[in-house]
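TL;DR need structure tokens for one chain.
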Amino acid sequence: MKQQRLGVMGGMFDPVHDGHLAAARLALDALALERVHLVPCARPNHRSEPGISAEHRVAMLELAIAGDQRLIVDTRELQRPGVSYMVDTLRSFVAEFPHAILVYILGQDSFYSLPRWYQWRELLDLCHLAVINRPAELGAEESGMPAELDAEYQQRKVADVDSLMATARGRILRLHNLDMPASSTAVRSSLLQGKRAVPVPAAVLEYIELHGLYRPF
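>> reply
TL;DR here they are.
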């Protein structure tokens, strides 16, 4: 029986944009995952709380993934009190899916910030990491990586999917094919300036306009 492969992708999704969806689908296809759980953060540890309610962020996510059964909005962090630590979230996935291979999907910037995360080394032992690089980041993989993270990376890095999936957890693979330089910060900035040519799904933009979100007042 083939071992289940599940992806986990956390974030504020404030708002969800085309880059989030492209990263999730890249991981789905490249790693042959059954599905990716998109986990909205309730209370972040390293940034201010979002100005948009969790209900709005979840509603936009649901609209963004409508029709794609491989993507799931997972609200477990919103149901848990306190700061949303990813290590706790991944422990809950391990408890729920004890026999699955879990892959946490993140971008290079988030990967480089791992040493500032709560119990970040324990996180590395709960899952694999799929680090998605944009084309501009290619050739600069080691530049700017904190020394303590680099030490872990050198021990855990693998070159291909087969090597990643040969064990249940603890390895790091880079995926290099995402040409989608969108960010929630840039999307919010454009919306606050009254721009509507933004990289978000049409249904999400309609929701934003309907509810008057991301306005300068």
